[in-house]
Amino acid sequence: MISKKRNVNPFVSIIIPTLNRKRDIIKCLHFLRRLEYPKKHMEVIIWDNGSMDGTQAEVNRIFKEMEKDGWKGLNMIQSEENLGGFTSRDELFKRIDTNADYVLNIDDDVFLSSDSLTILMRTLQDHSEAGIIGPRTVYEWKPDETAHGAGFVNLWLGRYGEIDAISLIECDYVIGCCMLIKSEVVSKLKGFDRDYYTSHGEVDFCLRARKKGYKIFYDPGVVVRHNVARGGTKTLERIYYLYRNKLVVIRKNATLLQKVTSLSLYTIFWVPKMIMDSMWFHRGIKLDEWLVMLKAVRHAIINRVGKVDI
C-alpha cells in the first residue's frame, strides 16, 4: 500500500470525545499544548456528549488561551445526546480538516508526552504500508505498568489478547484511547462502524484496515498515560457492550467457518467462563450482571447492535 508523499510538516487533526470529564479534559489539553509540533499544522476538535459538569465552559476558556499559540483550528461540538465513544468519533471524522494528513484519535483521559506525536508520525512515514499506529499506554496512577499493549484477535477461537512488546511490532489492533491514523485510511474505511456505539470499535476499524492492505503497528518506545482503572469500570452498561461487541467483531470480520467455530466455543466455554469470572470478582453471585452478560451474547447473535437501553 503506497501512501501520500511525505510532507515536511503534515497536518494533524486531533479528535477527542468527552462526557463529564472536566478535570481530565483540562489535563489532556494541557499536555496537547506541550506537543513538540508546529501548532499551525494542528487542529483540535472535541465532541461533548452533553456534559453537565462545566466541561464546555472550561474547554472554551482553554481554547481562548490556545488561540495565542497559533493552532490552526480549535472547535468543540456540543451534542444534545450521548452518542457513545465510537459514534462520536465517527462524527468527528466528518469534521476534520480536508487537508489533514493524519488523525490523532485520543480519549479525554489520555495524557501525551511532548514527543509522542512526532515519533509515531515518523514511524508511519518510514513504513509506507502502515496505516495505524498506537503507543504503549500505562496507568496514570501506576506509570510503570502497561495498561494496553499490542492487540491480537483469534477469529477461530474468539479470543482477544495483548502482548506487552518491548520493540516495534505489527499487530491486529491498537487500543482506541490513543491511535494515530493516516487520513487516507479514514477515507477508505468511511470511518468507524456505528454498530459498536462504544467498546471494540477500534478493533473492527483496525481489522478492516488490514483487509484493505494496511499494517497496524504498536510502538512501545512511545509511552502515554491513561487515567483508567485496571480492567476498566465494571458498570452493567460497560459489561454489556464489552461482551456484545466482542462477538460483533467476530460476526463482522470472521469467515463463515470461523464464525461457526468461535460462536460454538462461546456457547460451550466462554459464557460459563464469563459467569465464573464474575463470581470470582464479586466473591459471590451477582445475578444482574449475569443477566446482562447473557443479554449481550443473545443480542450479538441476533444482530441487535448500536445503542441499547440496559
Plain-language structure description:
The chain contains nine helices and twelve strands. α6 packs parallel to α7 (236-253) and α8 (256-282) runs antiparallel to α9 (287-301). The longest helix has 27 residues, at 256-282. The protein has 310 residues and is an alpha/beta fold. A hairpin with a 4-residue loop joins β8 and β9 (159-163). It folds into two domains: 12-226, Spore Coat Polysaccharide Biosynthesis Protein SpsA, Chain A; 236-301, no CATH class.
CA-atom Rg in angstroms = 19 Å
| Broad CATH class of the largest domain | Alpha Beta
What shape does the CA trace take?
Answer: globular
What would the average pLDDT be, to the nearest integer?
93
- Multimeric status of the protein: single chain
As a percent range, the share of helical residues equals: 40-55%
Q: Helix-strand pattern, N to C?
A: EHEHEHEEHEEEEEEHHEHHH
Number of distinct helices: 9
Looking at CATH, which topology of the largest domain would you report? Answer: Spore Coat Polysaccharide Biosynthesis Protein SpsA, Chain A
Give the termini separation: 42 Å
Characterize the largest beta sheet: strand count, sense, and whether it forms a barrel: 10 strands, mixed
Low-confidence segments, ≥5 residues, pLDDT <50?
A: none
Architecture per CATH nomenclature, i.e. the level-2 architecture of the largest domain: Alpha-Beta Complex
Beta-strand residue fraction = 15-25%
Q: Could you give a quick summary of the protein structure above?
A:
The chain has helices spanning 22-33, 55-67, 84-93, 116-126, 183-189, 201-211, 236-253, 256-282, 287-301; strands at 12-18, 42-48, 73-78, 102-106, 110-111, 130-139, 142-148, 150-154, 159-163, 169-171, 178-182, 215-226.
